[in-house]
């Protein structure tokens, strides 16, 4: 009986030891803090768009003569280097006949001019006849030069890329006959492209030409490029219901973004100097945004309003004092008035 009583008393004592809870005011949390200070933040506007070839850099490859595509050596979207063969054009028989006819006309006009000149020397031809013969020769030579300029003197020609570029449009197939002046394909320079960003109509008045833009591909944020707002359109795009803004890319930046790439643009609207804290220092609940500051070794909640964000910092306004220490790590465990042990960053 005595042994049983002593055992029960021992259990009660042990349970009491393990169930003992320290008073709330003796609990402290280990936190990291840093002093509040002013920082220059960029006020930005986020938008999305697509990379496209700069129309100024697009060249239409066409020919002044009709012919047949004997060989097609590129495909749409292919990158070509300057001097690389892209197609072979065989001159049409009709145009080749035109060149032969022009050559024959020059030979005839030259012999006729010589004959009339000989007769004129014998006073058997008038000056008017000599002038007409000489004019006929000049006209025939001009017609032949025009045929040569059109390339009808060449039965087959291998066409090369005039610069480093991308085949953005292909309007022909191998073996196809094309008419004079028809566009066979379009080449765009690889170092000249632009980005069309869609801006919400209510934000368009905040965007001005010359504003810097940071661009990252939607599906590959490791790549990035920078540019400036070049033009702002004056009407809503009926397809996107947004207003288009054109971003100009420098040549060294353009090579990073392939035409057709969808990108996120961050337009820097303004730079302001405000009190700012790291993004992780700001917490949110039903009452809104707040931070914890340390005063006299204890955590105190301060309700704030957030503003511009840039490079991991958030601008805040509220009853805070410059230089006081804000909790940047360990704040999720804090309660109002809790004692803290600080690691000052």
How are the SSEs placed, and which strands pair?
Blueprint: H1 2-18, E1 28-35, E2 37-53, E3 58-62, E4 67-72, E5 79-80, E6 85-91, H2 93-121, H3 127-150, E7 156-160, E8 165-170, E9 177-178, E10 183-189, E11 193-199, E12 212-217, E13 225-236, E14 243-249, H4 251-254, E15 262-278, E16 283-285, E17 288-295, E18 298-303, E19 305-310, E20 313-317, E21 325-329, E22 339-344
Parallel strand pairs: 1-22
Antiparallel strand pairs: 1-21, 2-11, 2-15, 3-10, 4-6, 4-9, 5-8, 6-7, 8-10, 11-14, 12-13, 12-15, 13-14, 15-20, 16-17, 17-18, 17-21, 19-20
Q: Which short descriptors sum up this protein?
A:
345 residues, OB fold (Dihydrolipoamide Acetyltransferase, E2P), Elongation Factor Tu (Ef-tu), domain 3, 22 strands, rod-shaped, Helix Hairpins, six-stranded antiparallel β-barrel, disordered N terminus
């Amino acid at each position: 009986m005595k042994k049983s009583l002593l055992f029960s008393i021992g259990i009660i004592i042990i349970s009491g030891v393990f169930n003992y809870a320290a008073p709330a005011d003796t609990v402290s949390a280990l936190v990291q803090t840093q002093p509040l200070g002013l920082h220059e933040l960029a006020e930005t506007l986020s938008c999305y768009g697509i990379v496209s070839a700069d129309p100024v850099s697009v060249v239409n490859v066409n020919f002044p003569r009709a012919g047949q595509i004997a060989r097609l050596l590129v495909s749409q979207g292919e990158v070509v280097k300057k001097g690389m063969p892209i197609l072979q054009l065989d001159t049409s028989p009709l145009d080749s006949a035109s060149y032969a006819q022009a050559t024959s006309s020059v030979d005839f006009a030259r012999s006729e001019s010589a004959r009339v000149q000989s007769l004129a020397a014998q006073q058997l031809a008038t000056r008017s006849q000599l002038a007409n013969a000489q004019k006929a020769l000049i006209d025939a030579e001009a017609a032949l030069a025009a045929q040569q300029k059109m390339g009808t003197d060449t039965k087959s020609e291998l066409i090369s890329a005039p610069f480093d570029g991308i085949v953005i449009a292909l309007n022909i197939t191998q073996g196809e006959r094309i008419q004079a002046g028809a566009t066979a394909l379009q080449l765009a320079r690889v170092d000249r492209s632009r980005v069309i960003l869609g801006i919400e109509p209510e934000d368009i008045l905040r965007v001005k030409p010359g504003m810097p833009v940071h661009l990252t591909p939607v599906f590959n944020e490791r790549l990035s490029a920078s540019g400036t707002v070049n033009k702002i359109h004056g009407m809503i795009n009926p397809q996107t219901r947004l207003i288009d803004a054109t971003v100009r890319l420098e040549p060294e930046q353009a090579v990073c973004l392939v035409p057709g790439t969808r990108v996120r643009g961050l337009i820097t609207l303004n730079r302001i100097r405000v009190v700012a804290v790291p993004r992780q220092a700001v917490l949110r609940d039903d009452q809104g945004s707040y931070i914890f500051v340390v005063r006299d070794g204890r955590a105190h909640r301060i309700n704030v309003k957030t503003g511009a964000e840039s490079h991991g910092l958030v601008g805040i306004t509220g009853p805070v004092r410059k230089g006081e220490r804000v909790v940047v790590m360990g704040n999720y465990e804090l309660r109002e008035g809790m004692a803290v042990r600080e690691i000052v960053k």
